[in-house]
């Protein structure tokens, strides 16, 4: 005997067909089937894990058919998923390019600033304060400032990009599933009783 919970209508296309998940089209051998919304017929039943995956992919908390709003909780997906996501491949390539620039520019900036400071010290020891020493100090300050501005802007851009991706790609989990199913069952029973009363009154 199949112990699937079905509310709001039968999930059978006919009496001989097997109950299947409307998302993965598999039966209860994988996971228990439930009716989480007001859909009926062949689209009534679904696995909880399949429905959560579907809602996460669609970034939605409502049934796309009957528009029933599920009680859900959301949590950001790991940053590693951002690297694996094909939609963000351009952003990933930009990040890799900026990392290469960081690896190359960081030692160059440090060495250049160091040489400027050493050269300025050398001129100051020999000639005191001179235009050569002042020029080297100004050059080192400009190099350090440009590098810091570039680094700050780059980090800020990529952090914003990742946060924006996380906001639109969240893991959706169903909560209060038992209460939702009970409420759907009660609503279905109320609808059935009202329909029976209407039929009796019309006789």
TrEMBL record:
Domain RING-CH-type: 13-73
Single GO BP term: protein ubiquitination
Entry superkingdom: Eukaryota
Family matches, as Gene3D superfamilies: Zinc/RING finger domain, C3HC4 (zinc finger)
GO molecular function: ubiquitin-protein transferase activity; zinc ion binding
Record's keyword annotation contains Membrane: yes
Keywords attached to this entry: Membrane, Metal-binding, Transferase, Transmembrane, Transmembrane helix, Ubl conjugation pathway, Zinc, Zinc-finger
Topological type in the membrane: Multi-pass membrane protein
Listed PANTHER family: E3 UBIQUITIN-PROTEIN LIGASE MARCH 2/3 FAMILY MEMBER (PTHR46065), FI20425P1 (PTHR46065:SF3)
Entry protein name: E3 ubiquitin-protein ligase MARCH3
